Amino acid sequence: MQIFPRSLNKLPLLVGAGATAGLVGVVFFIWYWFSPYFTQVGYSPKQPVPYSHRLHAGQLGLDCRYCHVNVERAPLAMVPPTETCMNCHQVVKTDSKMLEPIRVSWQTGVPMEWNRIHKLPDYVYFDHSVHVTAGVGCAACHGRIDQMEQVRMEKPLSMGWCLECHRDVKEKQGDSEFIRPVSQITNMAFVHDGHVEPPRHLNPPENCAGCHR
Amino acid sequence: MSKRAPHPVREPYPGSPQYWRNLEDRGGAREADAPEFPKLPDGNGHFTTPPSDEAWLVSRRGLLGAMTATMALVGAEGCRRPLEKIVPYTKMPEDVIPGVPSHYSTVLQRRGDAVGVIVESHEGRPTKIEGNESHQSSLGAVDAVGQASILDLYDPERSTSPSRGGAPASWADFEAALAGKLGEFDKDQGARLRVLMPPTLSPTVIRMRAALAQRFPKARVHTWSAVNDSNAREGAKIAFGEPVTTLYAYDRAKVIVALDSDFLQTETGSVRATKGFANGRRLRSSKDAMSRLYVVEPARTVTGMNADHRLRLPASDVERYAQALAVELGKNGVAVSDEVARSVSKVSAEGIPAPWLVAVAKDLAANRGRAFVSVGSRQPASLHALGHAINAALGAVGQSLMRFPAADPDELDNTTDLKALTDAIGGNQVDALVILGGNPVYDAPADLGFAAALAKVPFSVHASLFVDETSAKCSWHVPRAHAYESWGDQRALDTSTSVQQPLIAPLYDGRSDIELLALMAGPMNAPDKSSYEAIRTTVRGGILGQHGLVGCGPVLDGKIECHDATGKVSPVPAVELEREWSRALASGVSTRPQQAPTPLPLRAGDIAAAIDKRVVPAAVGPSSLEVTFAPCPKMVDGAHANNTWLQEMPDPVTKLVWDNAAIVSPATAKALGVASKDMIKITVGGQSINAGVWVLPGQADNSVALTLGWGRTKAGRIGNGRGFDVYPLRTTQALGFAVGAQVAKAGGDPYFFAQTQEHDSTEGRPIAHEATLAEYKQKPNFAELDNAPQRALPLWNQQDYSQGHQWGMSIDLNACTGCGACVIACMSENNVPVVGKLEVWRGREMHWLRIDRYWVEDEKSGGTVDNPVAINEPLACVHCEEAPCENVCPVNATTHGPEGLNEMAYNRCIGTRYCANNCPYKVRHFNYLNWHNDSVWKETGGLPESLQMQQNPNVTVRFRGVMEKCTYCVQRIQSAKIRSKREYRELKDGEIRTACQQTCPADAIVFGDINDPNSMVTRWVRTDRRFGLLQELGTRPRTTYLGKVRNPNPEMV
Question: What pLDDT is attached to residue A193?
């Protein structure tokens, strides 16, 4: 007596095909999850004014903190007010077409609207000041901004990526490649060779409430 | 399967007190056993079944639909993220660091006292109120209403523009109409102009009032507030001939007798009183002494919950008790003057338990100089006068109380003053009435007929935050500025003054009283160009006055010529005055308290005359009940009715939310044949109201306690139709209490009350530990001994918590009064949502911190079933080291941090609720809905934008389906840690203060590093009264408690 109908003969085949498809799917999703497509590394939107970090920070050698003044004392490094642009540009390039929106903003008091590039989810609380005063340089997260014509997201800013550094620093302290002397924070070309005396005992959090609260 | 038996619930050991939450609890039957789905009262008091739109989601079809939509959304998430803009300033304001809050000092009027506060402001958006340590009426603390005041500021239903007869108008229209009307009055010096405003503490308002009087010498300014201190003021006038105010030093007193005085919650100066009271009872070791509090009151109050001995007495009998006590004091050598003694000698002590006279008098006499009586504001002036006589006889003046001149010397008895106004309107003597603040149509004594009188005034203006009951009856309404959006000043009880500085430009185009009075007085009489200038002028005068200077000329060469009283001229550098002004703004105190003036002589003859003249209330009995009126601890006189936080805050005593109730004692309820939730009809002097009953042990028999401030009709969406309006029963003759009330069962459906204390049973476990002072001295570690020993073994390997910071909290049950300030502070700091009455009834309230109140029947401390003593236990997440919640989370959303915090990662939580189920403390709360949008503000399409402005940007706003609980204010821990790291230094003890700790007027909560041997929390944790809550379960809680100690008089138990 035949217990199983004939059609069941295809079952192993179907199972095999399904499993393969499932496996491919899982691999695809994991690959996607960790790939720059998901984390959007390389994201580089056009800004209302084509401000060149390569020119200002690179060639002219302006310190990062000339514009991002609060980076050492606040959670936000702060995108500068129009006023900061006008400090120079009321005497330099006063009739540049590209600077028109800045001048309009200055005259009308309507703020500039820049496109956000480095974005963390709302449930993550990141503080610039504590990183900068620990000896984490700007370039560690933002890359070689001084070589970028248009700012581009260089690192994935994912939780795994954050923890990589936190764990490395906790273990190696000043020997970690992410740490530099506090005086070299804004030095984009700084190369970590060997030991750096950390400014304090570094104990970056690895627990949830360190960033999520 | 686990073979572990459930932990046996320990039988109370012989002689241990019995703890219960309510009468049903004690009787064994539980109210929640047969929950009947409640019917929701709608705005008109009708009952409807709750809206069933949630039912759609839980039907099979709806669920499938929702799941499909969810799957579709999951797919859509892979799309490109939305473009987000960064909008910097164009010109950076000075001193603003984006992301770092600034703090400003200002001041808040709370009844007859001004409480200094510090307001946290995020980029110009005030978010949180904290106490100001340098202000003597705050000493770093604020009460619940003060904490919640920030929500009043942002109330989306505040009035946004002037209106004429209900139709919107502009300020220009109003100014033109006002100028036209006032122009008519110039010829007869304003005889037909009246102003009505609540009692003021502001020197500048008083100055502006004088300016108005310059223009209109015959105009009159009347004063009315439904919750006022007129009786105390009149009592002081009888006793001293002047309306002096009394500041009690509760910390210096050894024996306090509160005569119907709720000085810890609703009376004037409660924040400072609570600080003092808690300090007078603070026990660092079993060698310390503590004060003793006797309370005589009709209805249970927060003060009554903290009494060592409490006598239930109808309010109308309290004066008789005081007189009998004065007689008894005379026998103990504390003689009030002969005339007063003669007046009180006729009193009968019938019905007053003998020890309450003999032992109390003996105790008072034994502590002369360190003992006083405190009289409640609803008691008549003659009792206040007698209180002054007793305190003088006890030698308390200068020792444990001080007297200061009143803030407003011209204020009259509010009731008489309002009656004078109503009579004047009735006599057609008033053409224009300007009402600044208050809500007299709602809260004026019923027999005055104020609303009807107001309709007769041809030109009436009401300036208020809301278009309320009074605005609706006036020809004009203008929006009034909130205290946090206008310049002002306030004088505290101790005579120090503070500047009220605005935190934000008026949100709804409101103007302050100062501006409106100046507008009426005209620029000739009120020359200051703005309220800011007016305040500066007043403050400058105050500062110069402290140096004995009385008048100044204009600034010349950077110097101001000032002269003193004798006319001697001395130049003051203008820069000095500017520095003083900055200091006043920064510290929150502009002029220091005056020296207490030399005590005025007591006018014994007048006191005796007042006692002889007093109207003796009729006897209270089963056929002639008494009703008492008390300000609501949350709504006060009704002004805060539209505040969701206060609506949802459980009443400190009844634990009712979103309602008031008519409170009766069990015996009276039995006699009347009513039970909790029944509707009753209360009739007094021909007027009657219907109200729901709540039976509360500890209430005086034959006395019905009613709270003011409910049953509003034009408060707004939140406040309308909540609770029962009791003002119709309140008359000029009976502002505090009325005798001769008839109560009958009203029939109909039982009223739907929601109460929080019913939720979460202790299952008979000993939860809060207490002892008498004598026991404590014998057995200093009573709390640990009474606690069950740890029985459960840990499930996992023990963590090492000996390194680094280890956060812990300690709560002193001996200090906690149960006032509820911490509950609101926590909501304000942590963006805790409000869920509404129905959801509270379902047990879904979200308060991270709750205060459990238990009644205790215990011979040692005199608690009986009719008059149990109370114990309050604030309870939030205790951050167990062996946390049961962590073990059951399938997704590791709640885990343990290296510093001992039980952490909650909201973005990981999938809402299984296993953790809440496994939490023995029941402190985890689940977002069944997206509460912020889908509860009380659902009909308006979610949480209004203005209320979103209040939210703390440093705390995640939790969404539907997520579990949440106390985090020990982790955002404060992190920001303090980051600050210390940034400054390359160690954290200091006391640098991190949780929101509840910061605001606690009793300093009952301390937080800190338990690894630091010198920290305050370590010192508390090491005290002998320490115990761990439910420590037998082996949870090792980080929050520990210190047992309560009562100080009963050995002669009375």
Answer: 84
